[in-house]
Target: Fructoselysine 6-kinase
Amino acid sequence: MKVLGAGDNVVDQYIHTGMMYPGGNALNFSVYAKQLGAHAAYMGVFGDDRAARHIQDVLTQLGIDISRCRSHPGENGYAQVNLVDGDRVFVGGNKGGVQHDHPLRLDGDDLQYMKQFELIHSSCYSDLGTAELAKIQSTGIPLSYDFSSDWDPRELEERCPYVFCSLLSCGHLDDSEVQETLRLAHRSGSPLALATMGSRGAVLYDGERFYRQEPHKVVPVDTLGAGDAFFTAFILHYLSGKKEQQDDGTLLPSSLAAAAQFAAQACLCDGAFGHGIAL
Model:
């Protein structure tokens, strides 16, 4: 599999430990895909500060292609994480840093580059408007998209027509609300719609039925990135099975099971995937 994460990158600044770790939905996808054996690349926008250099050094060390990334003077994106009543919670950030003022805008060379991949993944934090999603769709390469928990029905209706698989964080919804949300994403254009719900597991909808996956139980070191890990393992397992024509009706359940196992493993290191340095 050859896959591309296109969009956000940040450093997650852990205020309570004085450490920072590479992260971001699109970037995490690329790193987790590489861990799972895929050929992975990342396309995004970097600042020119210490945080940006650290992320670039880590991606180069991991063997992830960053040749189509942009850099601009200024502060790289960061998110601040603190320990509140025993739970790690996001408490601040700079809204993408330089990416906010210099968002990724795809040109002809970018689109030609994208055609070598089998999946492109982006997110709601990537500052990609529907015009950019339409450009990606024009390449013929399927797009997956993480709406996180920052979505409303209008946004799903607007963006799902460009998205092969939608990922939504739905831990704040009850089961009936989760199902209705997934139905809306599917009706709006996404053949697959996947909701992650933290300790309640995940639910997938393919337009015909709902599939439920319980989480694998571990004693977590850090749950940051678990949703990204879950999705990456799910979509790679699913697309690999389709590519090898192994879909006998069990591919979606087995892909969800593989996702739960990988997400549990991702909870056993600090940050999304380690590689922390002092703030």
Observations:
- The two ends are 35 Å apart (CA to CA).
- Residues 234 and 256 are 6 Å apart (CA to CA).
